[in-house]
Structures are given as C-alpha cells and as structure tokens.
Amino acid sequence: SLQKSTIESLSALYNQSFTEKDFQINQTKPEFEGDYTVVMFSLVKSLKLAPDAIGNQLGEHLIKNYPQFFTAYNIIKGFLNLTVADAYWQSLLQKNYNDICYGKKAMNGKKVMVEYASPNTNKPLHLGHLRNIFLGWSVAEILKANGYEVVKSCIVNDRGIHICKSMIAWQLFANGATPQTTGTKGDHFVGDYYVKFNDVYKEQVADLIAAGKMKDTAEKEAPIMKATQQMLLDWEDGKPEVMELWKTMNGWVYEGFDVTYNSIGADFDKVYYESNTYLLGKDIVQQGMDKKVFYQKDDSSIWIDLTADGLDEKIVQRSDGTSVYITQDIGLALQKYEQYKIDQSIYVIGNEQNYHMKVLKLICEKLGMPNAENIHHLSYGMVELTSGKMKSREGTVVDADDIVEEMLSTSQQHTEELGKVKDFNPDELKTLYNTIGLGAMKFYLLRVDPKKTMVFNPAESIDFHGFTGPFVQYTYARIQSILRKVDTPINAYETSGELFKGEKDVIVCAEQYPAALEQAAAEQNPSVIANYVFNLAKIFNSFYAEHSIANAENEEKKQLRLKIASLTANVLKSGMSLLGIAVPERM
RNA sequence: GGCCUCGUAGUACAAUGGAUAGUAUAAGGGCCUCCGAAGCCCCAGAUCCAGGUUCGAUUCCUGGCGAGGCCA
Fold first, then answer.
1. Would you say the C-alpha torsion A565, A569, A575, A579 has a positive or negative sign?
2. C-alpha distances out from residue A464 to A470, A532, A573, Å
3. Nucleotides of B under 7 A from a protein CB
4. ipTM > 0.90 (yes/no)
5. Helix (H, G, I), strand (E, B) or coil at A73
6. Which of A28, A173, A188, A528 could staple A34 via S-S, CB 3.0–4.6 A?
C-alpha cells in the first residue's frame, strides 16, 4: 500500500526501522498539487536533517522504487506532496467496485456486549432514548463490521418506587380501564397514570402545607405516597395481588415498547430485568468485607472509601441490609462476564451517569474482578431543544412515537410533492416513507459526536437537503437509476488511462472507507460514518454533474464511470447500513 | 462548596499538534431540449478572554468568564 511503501523507503534511506506512528500522512489539500502528503516535521528531530532535505530524498526514493504508486512529488514548507499513479486508483476501483464486503474485517475472535436503551417501565420512550438506541445499535453494527462478535443487551428497570407510582394511580383512578378499552398504546397508557400520580401527589402536599404542615413532613405524609411505599413493601414480600397488577401493567408497557422497537428497527439478543438482578451483588459485599476493600460504619451500613482516587466515600449496602444501585450493577457486570465471556462490556448511558460509571469500574477493579478492565461507559450527551432542556414537568419532552410519526408523514409529503414514484403500490410507498423518514431521523441524531450535547431543531430534523440521510439516499437511488438505464453492462476488464479530477476524487474518497470504519470502531463513534458517507455522496454528485456516464467520451470512460458509480453505491449502502439506515432503489 | 464536561460563521455541526480552520443550513447570484434539480456551480461570513509549552495550538497546560451535568 501507499503507507507501507513510505515506511519501507524511509527505512531503506536512513537505515533504521520506522512505524506509521513516526510520521504523519494526510490527504493532500485540494489547493496543492498531489494526492498524498507526508508531513516532515516529526522526522526532523530523529534524523537531524532539514525538512526539505528529507522530503527530497524520500520523494526521489519513492518515485524511483515505487513507480506503480507514485509518479511525482513537490515540497512546500515541510510538506511532501506525492502524486499517486492513476493506475493505482484504477486497480483499487477494479478490485472493489462490486465487493459488498469492501472495508469490512474478518472475525477477530473477540466478543463485545453492548447494553443500550435500558428504559423504565413507567413511561414511554422519548427523544433521549432514541439517541441512545440509535447509538447503541449503530455501535454494535460498526463493531461487527470490524470483526467483533456482538451481543446486544438491555436492562429493563421494571421495579422500584417509581413503578409503584403508576400502579397506585391506576388502582385509584382507572376504574378498570386498560389499553384495549381505551385504545391507547400500552406504554403511553401506563405513563399517563405516572403523570396522574404526580398531579395528585402535588395536590395532596399542597393541601397538607395549607393545613400547617412543614414541606418535608407533607411530602412524607401525603396519603398517595404512603400507599405507594406500602405497595413497594408488598411487592418485595411477593404479595399476590400486587405481583399480578405489576405483571399486567408491565405487560402493557412491553407491548407498547415492542411496537416502538419494531418501528425503529431496534432489537436485543439478551434482555435483563432489574426485578431479577436487584438482589445480585449481596455476596460481593461480603467478599469486599473479607478483602477489606469495604468497611462497616457504626450503623452497620457498608462503604468503600475512594478518596485516594479523587472520589468520595460511597455506600454499597444500607444499614437495613438492603442493597443500592451500585451493588446490583456490580453483580450484573459479573454475571454478564460469566454468562458470555465477553472481552468488552459497553454501556450506552447518558453522561449524567459519568460519576456512577466511574465508581462502578473502580470498585470492580478494587475487588479484583476479572471483568473490571473490560467495562466501558459509552457516555453520550443530552438532547436539548432549541428552547432549552426537555423537562417532563413542563411537558416539553419530545415523545419517541410522536417524532417517528412526524418524520414519516413529512417524508410522505415530500415524496408526493415530487411525484417520482407514482407507480408504487401502497406497500411499496409505506416502505419508502419508512426508509426516508427513519433515515432522516437516525442520520440527524447520529451525525453528531455522541459525547456532545446536541440541539434538536424540529425544523432542521425534517429537512431533507444538505447534510441529511435523504441526501445520501437520493445519491444512491440516482446511481441505481443510471445503472438500470445504461444499455451496456459493466465488463470485468480493468480500465486504464488518465483520470479526470472528478473521477479521481471519488475513488480517493472511496479508498478512505476502511479507515473510516476502523476509526468509528476505535472511537465507538457513528458520526465518523455519517460524515464519511455524506462526503462521499457529495463528491460523487459533483463528479456526476460534470461527467456523463451514459454518454461518456468513449467506451473506456463509460466502463470507468460505471464502476465508479457502482463502487459509490456499494459504499453508501454499506455505510448507511451501519447507521441502521436503508437505502431505496427509487425515491 | 467539591468534582466532571463543553465554549468554532446568524444557526447546527467538522478538524490523531500541521499548509489559507472544513461542511450544511439560512441570505445573494446562476444551472433542467442531454444519465433523477431530494441535485450542481458561484458569492460572502467563525476558533470566549489572558498567559504558557512548541518550528507550528481550535487541539496540550494555567488562570479568568460563560453554559451544562454529577455529588451532598
């Protein structure tokens, strides 16, 4: 390859061994002559030579010894710009234009678990969950493409005081209503009772304060809160009628979640339920005591002291012997490792849990657990609105089902206005609206670096122009249209001859795809792929506007451009699939 | 109060310490008798402030100012 020949040349010239880390390679900026740039500065110190001297020697050597790769060079201010032989690009094109696995790696024998989504069963999914779900799903696909075996998992938070709140509210106010009798989606139905609880609770607290109680006291003594706490105790005791209600209401929620998961294409290989895992980790507390990693306070609560690591003291078991979140998380982390023998355990969780996840990993390390090093928090930023944060109290939370619905109807509207698929039957249309609407939404949420807080602008999210999913889909559909219409088939012979700039630009960009896949996996960052496919589509569109494929100057050029179109389509389809986005043959 | 993120055109996003800081939108001007105009071309516009390290800083360090998060 280009890089390998550079390393070999350097080693031969200066009689020492170099690696790819010893120097920097970039794509040459468009304003300079050349395709491939080696930055000399990092070599200056070790070789004790002037940048231009190294550049000249290296440039000469490369052209002399690797004429199949390099044909010319120039040096500008310490940058060695090399012109890559057109034959190199031609053979790259020939090798990959029809390879649907281009850029993907063979299995590497490593297994990774990606835990994502992880909802509570007391309210429906919202925009933040969508970022989480798209991110988790996409990272799983990106890791698969890089040779990992991936287990997608989900921990459902199906128990606790917040779950009991919607149960109590249903008991008190529903009069036996169900999702079926009201025609409401199950998760929304249950979520409505969670809201109802909070309304009633607020009223009761206000009444108690009006009757002269202090705020703290009022919050504790509100009848609906006391009933909820009793219900939690009954649940823990396994009281039959409470268990029954709990199962029924969670069942409604799961039915609703399944509808949403289906519509957005999310799936899991393994689902954990907190009701099964919340007692995990008890024995670990004992081990921690034995190893003197934990210590007991006078009230018999158990703690770990992390002040030496710059954190604080953290409770791992309450004085009444009940466990806390972190303890179950340790237990589950160990269980995942034992069940699946995973090499890495990725948690897709919002950045408000950064501290919690740091503590989790640190405790696992201190306990000497075999999986401690493999725990990785894929922390993502909040989704904010142009008006600021989403707040459930102010009713500004964007519901997942609503936004999906809006994307679908917008894609329908655009499609109808353009009127290009009037011959589609209703099923084909429905599929197309899904492809475009979901494509727009997934692309919008994935194109930003996951770590960063992002702004959700409703007007921009339904825009289908520019840096969007539909732009990339359109480019793909247009290529397919050309390939369908062209009279001569693509033949198997490698093309040759000089490349026009537009032609070369597309191939040069396509060459970067494997590197983009690697980077996306290394950073666990789908935005690398989103940026890449957009860029490729853009470069192809420029090429296409300038050069005719069907009416090329000659048969050789026609074959060349057909292959360029085919390669582009393959890479776009492959890259988009890693984002969970389908590409239509027509749109 | 302690700890952790983040400050880039009007707006939203890019840039392993590298060349004149990219892209999209919104504003202005062009391009369909020819492979799909959900497209292409042209034109403008930005690194919060002050120091430091470096041949070179949007990037690394220190201190401000501003936004967000977590822990009591």
1. positive
2. 5, 18, 18
3. 3-6, 11-16, 18-20, 23-26, 34-41, 55-56, 68-71
4. yes
5. strand
6. A28
